[in-house]
Amino acid sequence: MLTINNTMLRNLTILLGSTTTVLAATIISPALPEMSQFFKDVPNVDFLVRLTLTMPALFIALGAPFAGVLLDRWGRRPVLIAALVLYGLMGTVGYFLSSLTAILISRALLGLAVAGIMSGFTTLILDNFSGSKLNQFMGYQGAFIGLGGMVFLLAAGFLADVGWRFPFLVHLFAFVVLPGVLFAIQEPEKKTLSEQQANAAEKRAFPWRSVVPIYLTVFVGMVVFFIFPVQIPFYLTAEGGVSNSQVGIALSMQTLSSVLIALQFQRIKAHLSFMGILGLIFLVFAINHSVLAFTANYGLVIVGLLISGLGIGLFPPTNSVWLASVTPPDLRGRAVGGMTSALFLGQFFSPVFTQPLIGRLGLAGTFGAVGAVSLLLALIYFIISKRSTEQGDIELTKSSVPLSN
User: Fold this and answer.
1) Nearest 5°: CA angle at 244, between 160 and 237?
2) Are residues 141 and 318 in contact, defined by beta-carbon separation less than 8 angstroms?
3) 262, 314 in Cβ contact below 8 A?
4) Which of 188-202, 232-246, 369-383, 386-400: highest mean pLDDT?
5) C-alpha 89 chain-centroid distance
6) Given 112, 155, 309, 348, which residue has the most CB atoms within 10 angstroms?
7) How far apart are CA 142 and CA 227, in angstroms?
8) What is the rounded average pLDDT of the residues 167-185?
9) According to DSSP H, which parts of 226-331 are helical?
10) pLDDT for 294 beyond 90
11) In sequence order, what E strands does 2-155 have?
């Protein structure tokens, strides 16, 4: 009975810990317009305020490869403990700061913390699950991330109506997760890993040819997706005349549909290849971008965000399971670190790529242009999926590296 309880607590800790990553990415999004007003005398304030949202992404990308190495060398638990403490401190300090530069620095340090958290919890999942159980648990993780995003964004929207500083306090959630890591997380069996490393036949060079397509997919997907949390607050407040809390509600609707679809990932994966699912993901992104291109009507924007949430719910588990299928256990931490880096590089560069478009086309025109790119990507993945089916290669996992149970 004790083992079962510890296992349940471990799994709950992993799932709750995974939600902290969405906090770093979007939690202050509803407060951005009011932050711009508060720091209106700062040169380039609009760009710098947007940068506070994406600054963690850059430092997650820079820190994730090192976090992956530390996870393989030092272990999962020590890295997660240190990362959660740093996360809680750097995430909340923005509540007290009145310097935009200081806030940007704290957000950079927050990014380093998230690099350890995201890589650590994802690696723990790959350590403890395989096969259909892995697909199922990755769906649970996606659902928890979506549910956490919905709850936290709703809270952030209402807190932002009170004052732009208050959403920073939501990062204190890290200290709720920390006890679970201290008492329920154990390292994978050392014997298994040492035997693999000692056996020359099991030693493998890092599978760059297999993981680079995954990293590129993750990067491009985040560039396409992250225009939503960065630009929609400005789009809705300027064009739709809505409040900060309504912005939070709109963004939370996206995460609501992501929760529902993530819970179905195991079933969807049983019928579609990785390429087929990715084609579906970019197709729903294209639909949402198209809706936003034609209207800022609050109700229709919510409909579009609900549709795009279907893609958000499938994106993380698809890429994580794909990565697990081509990565040996002794290189897993580094592989996950690389994927985490690609994901948050995409988040960071999304406004960098879209801001020039906004200057030329406006927000509506930019949504339309990115929607066209998303549709093109969807067609490419569907074509690859069809060709793979014709060649009998639809299931990449048939040649996957065995995962530990």
Assistant:
1) 140
2) no
3) yes
4) 369-383
5) 21
6) 309
7) 20
8) 90
9) 227-235, 244-262, 265-271, 274-294, 298-326
10) no
11) none
Q: What is the pLDDT of residues 213-251, one digit of tens each?
A: 999 999 999 898 888 777 777 777 766 567 767 777 777
Closest to 153 in 3D by CA, of 246, 239, 292, 17:
246
Structure tokens at 122: 């994802």
pLDDT at 24 over 80: no
Q: Which of 96, 86, 36 is nearest to 60 (CA)?
A: 86
Kindly provide the residue ranges of all beta strands, DSSP E only, lying in 6-155, ordered along the sequence. none
Query: Six-digit token pair at 125?
Result: 């999942």
The answer to whether the CB of 312 falls within 8 A of the CB of 225 is yes
Nearest-CA neighbor of 36 among 226, 164, 168? 164
CA distances from 184 to 9, 20, 136, 178 (A): 6, 18, 21, 10
pTM for the predicted model, two decimal places? 0.72
pLDDT at site 305:
86
- Residue indicated by tokens 């999304």: 350
> What does the block give as tokens for 135?
């697909």
pLDDT at 278: 94
Q: Which two tokens stand for residue 248?
A: 């939070």
CA 156 – CA 168 distance, rounded (Å) = 8
Which residue, among 404, 206, 218, has the nearest Cα to 318 in the 3D structure? 218
Grade residue 156 by pLDDT with cuts at 50, 70 and 90: confident
Q: Which among 184, 194, 280, 244 has a CA at the least distance from the CA of 37?
A: 244
Other C-beta atoms closer than 10 Å to the C-beta of 10 total 18
Residues in the chain: 405
In angstroms, rounded to a whole number, what is the distance separating the alpha carbons of residues 118 and 176? 16
